[in-house]
Amino acid sequence: WDPALPVEPFQAPYVRLLITAPTSNAGDVARVMEFELYGGGNVVFGRAALASHQIAGEEAALALDGQSTTKWCSNAPGPKWLQVALDGPTTIRRWRVHHAQSNGENAAWNTADFRLQSSNDGTSWTDRDVVTGNTAALTDRTMAPFTAAYLRLYITKETSTESGTGAARIYEFEAYGD
Description:
- By secondary structure, the chain is an all-beta fold.
- Strand 4 and strand 5 (126-131) form a beta hairpin.
- It is built from no helices and 8 strands.
């Protein structure tokens, strides 16, 4: 089971999480640490992706597959980027990045400096949000809504100790709209 499991869009005044079988070692007790439901859905889930570079077996599309155990990784010199074409102009309000530590890798490998960029033509890019000095396993950002046909995660510093020569590791890139 993946905690970032997408569901088909639906409308409802109430939502219930029904647990039919608690964990076997907990007896009749269910433990839910967090339950989140997002409207609008992850607009980059399952899409084709382009990247500045990728390692065999750690291709760009793996950062958009909804699986917390796969990743896009690039160890080429210089800035690294992951680009996604949307279904035409789409309003974006929130974005998330799952870094190395989110899958048990070394916390020092979390992406340090990066930005969310948007484009209407896939060529000219506008910075929408900038993160610097990140050490968290998960980046979760909400912003003023904007409309774009393309999104790009642009990495300028891979980790707190690497810049332009290390590996960027993105386990999941998500964007949410209306």
